[in-house]
Amino acid sequence: MMIVMFQRITTISQFVVLESVRSRFFLLILFAVFASFIIGIFAQSVSVTEGDLTLTSLVAALLRFVTILSLSLLIVTTISREFQSQSFDIVLASDMTRTEFYLGKLLGFSINAFFIIIVFSLCLLFIAAPSQVLIWSTSLFLEALIIIAFALFCSVSIEQQPISIFVILAFYLLARSISALKLIAETPILRDESLFLSVMPQVIGFISMLLPDLSRFTQTNWLVYETGMVNDISGLFLQTVVYVSLLVFAGLIDFYRKNY
Amino acid sequence: MANTHRKLNTLPVSISTIFLLVLFLQIFVHLQNRDQLVNAEELSFPPSITAFKLSSFGETTTFARVLMLWLQAYDNQPGISIPYQDLDYERVEAWLSHIIDLDPRGQYPLLAASRLYAEVNDKQKQRQMLDFVAGRYLEDPARRWPWLAHAVVIAKHRIKDTELALKYAQLLSATKEVENIPGWAQQMEVFILEDMGELEAAQILIGGLLSSGAVTDSHEIHFLKERLEQLGAKN
Fold first, then answer.
1. Which of A96, A131, A160, B122 is the most buried (most CB within 10 A)?
2. How far is A174 from chain B (nearest CA, A)?
3. If you measure CA to CA, which chain B residue comes closest to A59?
4. What is the pTM of this model?
5. pLDDT tens per residue across span B50-65
6. Residue among A57, A184, A215 minimizing CB distance to B65
């Protein structure tokens, strides 16, 4: 039974990858790499000093953002199209379970992320140390897994594409700034006795418990100043496993509750 | 497989014509706007470092570099060029300070301070930039010594304030235990003292350097010993 489940999951994932290839998604990725390098080289050419570091930091930041944005848009549009074209109804009518369908999609989009990051890593090897590129790209893959899981959760739960995309981007930006927000809330410069300021640290603290701290992931400093170490990403593995599991189960709960 | 697009010559003529007209109109409007008189925008004070950190969404290094490129190009706004010395240096210093706080390992802001903004024909502004460089030096002497060394040179040869040059040189030699700082930078104090006629002080310094074992290069030791003898002869 486990073998059958595994076969179905991998079949769904293969179709996800195939669909991405047919929709020329990877061409878009190559274009994004090209555009990132053009912007980076422009910034390098106008830099008086540390031009190489500027190129590396800008390209890395852009590629990180492109990874997250492209995967989010791909997931939202793909799932939305499947629901609207009712191809999902055909899947439901078969003996495939919703869990197999959901996990198949997750695996398929994760494979897409893997290919994207491989391409980005190969490009970054021209401008950064290989060991740092390896650490950075591993971290980016973990970050991408979290976003994939969240995007899948949003796509299944929220049926409107614009709202899903907005929520995913808001989640991503908040997760990246939550540690800075927490620090600011806990050390206010103004000694204000207002209720708002006294409650804010607790509110932000509570929100930070529910969010992954993405500011620890995929740090540009690793590539620019070669400060990345294996220890930096070992903690990120646990965070990724826990958070992806949380999102998968939350998604499955919502998925099973829906009547199609 | 059926072609999903029609040929261009099937388009209504009115649509194509109006499209081309509007396209030319856009180019015309753009060219008109270019010739309008431009008032130079004054450099504002930067937002708080907190605002910067939040706006960067964790990419503080990249954000700092982009800000630096923007600040560096501020003298060259569309249609107008502002000399560096016309910029409000309080504000320039505030921007540079925030950029360093965002990316402490980056050297661009201090290079800009010492080699761009301090190269103006305004001694007060030069001093301001050099003081800024000296003020941030101790946070990371291993990486920031080149800018302080340049500040010594500017203070001595451009501003012609030997006391100021000595102050900066003393800051360099006070961090002699930091490995990255080369001997010649640490010894700048000696040569400035010599130029000031403080020969005895210069002799004591060289003697101290040699006896402390801080100088290990044989050529450097030989050079300093020769210098000591020359100072002794002058004194």
1. A96
2. 8
3. B62
4. 0.83
5. 889 888 888 899 999 9
6. A57
